[in-house]
Structures are given as C-alpha cells and as structure tokens.
Amino acid sequence: MTDAVRAEGLVKTYGKVSALAGLDLVVPEGTVLGVLGPNGAGKTTAVKVLTTLVRPDAGRASVAGIDVLADPAGVRGLIGVSGQYAAVDEYLTGFENLDMIGRLYHLGARASRARARELLEQFDLADAGDRVAKGYSGGMRRRLDLAGALVARPPVLFLDEPTTGLDPRSRTSMWEVIRGLVAGGTSLLLTTQYLEEADLLADNIVVVDHGRVIAEGSADELKAQVGGERLQITVSDPDRLARAEELLTPLAVGPVVREDERRSLLVPVSGGASRLADALRLLDTESVAVDDVGLRRPTLDDVFLSLTGRDSAAATEPGHHSDTEASA
C-alpha cells in the first residue's frame, strides 16, 4: 500500500503566530485520516499546504507520490478540495456550477455536461439542478460544493470541516455521501471538530494542537489511552455541585470535570457499577439530590479533553477566525 498523502515536519508561521510547528501526517492509499483539533490548531493551514495554496516555511509533503513544492500543478490535477465554506457561484444553477468546473478541467463540453448531470443525481440535487444556487439551503450548497470537488474524479480528496454549520439531518446525509466515496476507493483527509464524525468515518485519527500532532491511532486505540469508564451525574441544585465534587473526587482515577452551567460532573472511575452505587450512597448521605446519573465508556470527547485540557465544543481560541491564516 502506498501513501496517498505524506507530510513531514511542516512548519508555517505568520509573524509571531506559529500555525504549523513540525506537523507529520500520513494517509495510506484508500483510507480516511481524520484530523481533529480546535480552531487555531493548524488543521486548515495543513490542508492549504497539502493542496498547494500555501508554501510551508520548512518540511516536505507529497500527494499521490508527487512533491507538493516541486510539482504543484501535478498535485492539483489529482486532488479534490471542499473547504469550510461552500465555493458555489450563487448566480449560476447547480448544473452550471458543475459544468463550469468540468470545462475548467478541460473535460470538453459534452463530457462536462454529462458529468454535471451524473453528480447532481449522485448528490440528490437533480430536481434542483436547473435552479439558481442562491436559493439553495445550506445543506444543498455543501453537497454541491462536494460534487464540484469530484468533477474530475480525483483519487485524493481533502475535506476541511465539510459539515460545519449543517443541521443534524444534513450532516448525516453528508456522512453517507462520504462513506460512498471511500467505498469507491477515494483516499481522504478529513479535518473536523465533530468527534462523532471522526469516530464514524476515519480509519485513523490524529489529534492536532498548536500546530503539531499530539496523539494518533484508531478511535478505539485513542479511547483505550484514556481508559476506564465515566460516571456522569447531574445534580438538582446548582449550589450543591461543589459539595458533590468534593464527595466524588476520592472515587476518581483522574481529573473530575465540572460543568457549572449543566450542573454536572464527569468522574473517571474504575469498577463499573459498584462505583456507581458508591457514588449514589455518598450523595444520598449528604442529601445531594440527583436529576440524572449514568455510566459510560470513554468517547473521543474524553480523549480530546484528556490530551488538550479543553472540551471540543468550547475549544475555540479567543479572537480566532477559522478562515484567517494568521490563526489557522
């Protein structure tokens, strides 16, 4: 098996901001690599380097065996890219958007039209294909953007947070499309902040923070690094949350996560159901009323929190704009 994408020691700085600090990535051919990280971690900058849009200050990278710096045109002929924001001309119809891309790839008029209709069918946009894209919903625009990335049937695809801003139904639909592409042999690098997305789609996952990889493995391997189970408790009275934390901390085998807004505690434990019973007895002894309680296995969210010290849902850096290179 060859590598569809390989990056070694990528470095990119913007003034005093280090966007990439020695990033290493490998995507074996025919697989999906999920790249996780908060806004500002370096995900988008990495994609821009690998897709020839940005030159790194140091390091090397290749796509489908072609050096990104030595032959950028060769790389561009083998990749498809769908960014965080749908690159759709809203004054053209869906068909015209795809037909235009085909002509830019020099597919020829007949082949471009045929490919446009084929992709509209594949992405469930056939009924809207002759409508101006300005009237499309967010989910339709995202699907059209992804269809555009596939016009030339690229063997390597880069999806940079492809489901950002979509409602749950549209996100699920997009996941089905991505699964179909992978089943057809496409190699894929997927950046995302949605841990469920990486869990469902990726063969391998890297966690990126501050421009470098801080963990790597399959979803199960990363969860195993965290270990144990999680006791999740929601108290009735927010004023009793601190006391609940004091009572349950001795049962924990790692840091207790307290969320004041949700009146909840997440307690890493070992011992399963017996620890759940112990926790309830302690809380009952101190008359700490509980609204909800559960025991669950680690998730990728727990992995992210353990590795970065931040919850993925609140990992945006102050003042960051994900579409600006200075803090990408």
Automatic annotation (TrEMBL):
Belongs to the ABC transporter superfamily. Drug exporter-1 (DrugE1) (TC 3.A.1.105) family. SUPFAM superfamilies: P-loop containing nucleoside triphosphate hydrolases (SSF52540). It is a peripheral membrane protein. Keywords: Antibiotic resistance, ATP-binding, Cell membrane, Membrane, Nucleotide-binding, Translocase, Transport. It is found in: Cell membrane. GO terms for biological process: daunorubicin transport; doxorubicin transport; response to antibiotic. It comes from Nocardioides scoriae. Residues 5-235 form the ABC transporter domain. NCBIfam families: drrA. GO terms for molecular function: ATP binding; ATP hydrolysis activity. This is ABC-2 type transport system ATP-binding protein. The lineage of its organism: Bacteria, Bacillati, Actinomycetota, Actinomycetes, Propionibacteriales. GO terms for cellular component: plasma membrane.
